[in-house]
Request: fold
Amino acid sequence: MLDIWIADALVLTAVVGMPISTILRMRPRLLPGEGLTFPDWQIAEEKYRRRYIFRLVCFRILPAILAIYFGYRLFTWPPDVRADGPDIPTFYRALFAAFVFAMVVSSVLRIRQERAFVKEHPQFADSVLPVRPRVMAIVPILLSFGCIIASMSFHDLTLVTTLFLLGLVGIIVSRKLQVRSITRSRHELSWDEPLGARIAEVLQQFGYTPKKLILMPSMVTNAYALVDGSVLVTSALRTLVSKDEVAGVVAHELSHSRDGEGKKLQRVRLALTLPFLLLQIPFLVLFLGTSAEPFLPPFLSFAIVSVLLIPAMLFGRYSRRLEFKCDRDAAKVGLGLSLASCLTKITAFMGNPRRWIGLDKYILTHPSLDERVAALEKAHAMFLQRQEG
Ligand SMILES: [Zn+2]
Reply:
């Protein structure tokens, strides 16, 4: 028989271990610039395959089996003997503590990692975001998540529901605040020449100007269309790739921004995920305060991880379709090949593989590099045909 205490400890370990291992793995590894090379794709692929199998076993197969096991125990537990294990409030207090600990440790690790990287590669010096805006960015989200987790540390269902909903509202509000703090940031970098002129050209070619165009100091090589319609490019991306490649990415993001997709994606994700999160409530109603209560934390934790696969797959499908659409739009203004080479560099820099395998093909929000490059090459050929015609 599997002990409830062991199962709870497994959940807490995952909550602490996952963000920390992600930070440790996501260190930049490509050395850009003259005479420097990409890491070996084959090595990246092999590492990814190993990680994938680990994730599949630990975060898909095992939770599903454990959810079924603890669900069975929960429903068949005799009403007169109390199960041996922590009750709901104790477990969720521990979960909240584990969550805060994981966030603090991963933030410290990330800052140290970035500082070490910049020492070796000073061209990335302006990509280190100061500590204050970093803290300001995570505190509201931490509080809202904390509200959701802490909501479960009471024995009263009305209090649980109220705090849970408050946490959800908090997440929405804090995302808005985050966007506001980014768009009004005093740390924004200037689009200096020749990048400024090149980007102005793209805006003209594309025939659309976003609410705001932001160059933000960040070590993550990426670009985003924010929910308010602004387009953001990180300084690490600008340092890593050529100005034409930045132009390709900006064209892709302009397509997201023009079609209001920052907001759309956020709404679709929430609408898909929320019903699955609310599935917990009937179990709380049935078992809170009963002799079987100690089975609830492991059952709910493993069951949530298992069922969230469904909204993840639906959202992934929706998001990947939009990604292809934005890539095609970038190709329509002649930037298909620039975008393809930019994506290749980003993928290598982050140590990601060229192809997804297994479940990743269905749950990831972006198509694999190989798929995107193939589609971009095709779209670029069509662009050339149109030019000639
Ligand atoms: Zn995109």
Summary: Residues 252, 256, 323, 326 surround zinc ion (CB under 6 Å). The two ends are 72 Å apart (CA to CA).
